[in-house]
């Protein structure tokens, strides 16, 4: 089976590196983007299985990327997990209505990412 791929989109290098370590630990190949436009370009180049997506970024924010990706690539690919400090229910609902599969609050750890990736269909249920 081909290795699964994930794109980590965050304007913070520290967050990208932390997320990358965790996700690579689950056996994914990981690419990084620092904003939504860079992420969209990366998806056009090679569509990842999953995207871990920050909300607040320069150039193009997460929700704008999400809507553009859904319009361009359809409702199910890539599987998009929002990862943000935005805790308001209205924001969470906005992200899910726009097509995100899951929602992670920062700060996160490996266990949280594993749970959300499993719920989003990116990881198998642990036996």
Automatic annotation (TrEMBL):
Annotated ranges, domain Response regulatory: 5-121
InterPro entries documented for this protein: CheY-like_superfamily, Sig_transdc_resp-reg_receiver, ST_Response_Regulator
Keywords attached to this entry: Phosphoprotein
Pfam families xrefs: Response_reg
Entries under SMART domains matching the protein: REC
Transmembrane intervals: none
Residues where 4-aspartylphosphate is found: 54
Name listed for the protein in its UniProt record: Response regulator
Organism classification: Bacteria, Pseudomonadati, Pseudomonadota, Alphaproteobacteria, Acetobacterales
